[in-house]
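Progress note, sequence design subtask.
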């Protein structure tokens, strides 16, 4: 019997020195301020990253050449507590409109000035044979962990 192994979701969290509403705003409307220029899918250096503020909105990057490259879309928009994004990049970080993995981000108020942000990137099995490749990339030190640290620094300022 040939059995495939389903990769576990990648789960990361960070404590942000900011209220939940600010953390949500910086994660979404402010993504262009903290997403690193090295993490891009377009041919040109990214000018900014955008998450449109509504369910069904686009998640994309805009390059310095003006070209927009889709990353995915907004599945759930529930400020200031929950954001679910469709990640539609394959293991080579190329857009695939037929592929949907999910990035769920929860903003859990710990106090008036602190928010625990929990991220889960799931349904990686939908990538088939390349699921483990993407899992290793997003679970690596320069994957979601580094991105959340950059986000936390931006939100805490």
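Output:
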């Amino acid at each position: 019997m040939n059995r495939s192994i389903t990769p576990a979701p990648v789960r990361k969290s960070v404590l942000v020195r900011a209220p939940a509403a600010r953390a949500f705003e910086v994660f979404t409307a402010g993504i262009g301020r903290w997403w690193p220029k090295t993490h891009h899918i377009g041919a040109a250096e990214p000018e900014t990253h955008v998450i449109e503020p509504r369910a069904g909105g686009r998640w994309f990057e805009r390059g310095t050449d003006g070209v927009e490259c889709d990353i995915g879309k907004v599945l759930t928009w529930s400020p200031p507590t929950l954001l679910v994004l469709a990640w539609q990049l394959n293991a080579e970080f190329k857009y695939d409109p037929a592929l949907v993995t999910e990035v769920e981000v929860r903003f859990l108020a710990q106090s008036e000035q602190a928010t625990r942000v929990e991220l889960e990137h799931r349904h990686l099995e939908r990538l088939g044979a390349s699921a483990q490749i993407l899992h290793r990339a997003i679970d690596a030190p320069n994957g979601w962990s580094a991105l959340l640290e950059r986000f936390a620094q931006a939100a805490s300022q």
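The beta strands are 10-16, 46-51, 58-63, 68-78, 82-87, 101-111, 114-122. Work on this subtask will continue into the next period as scheduled.
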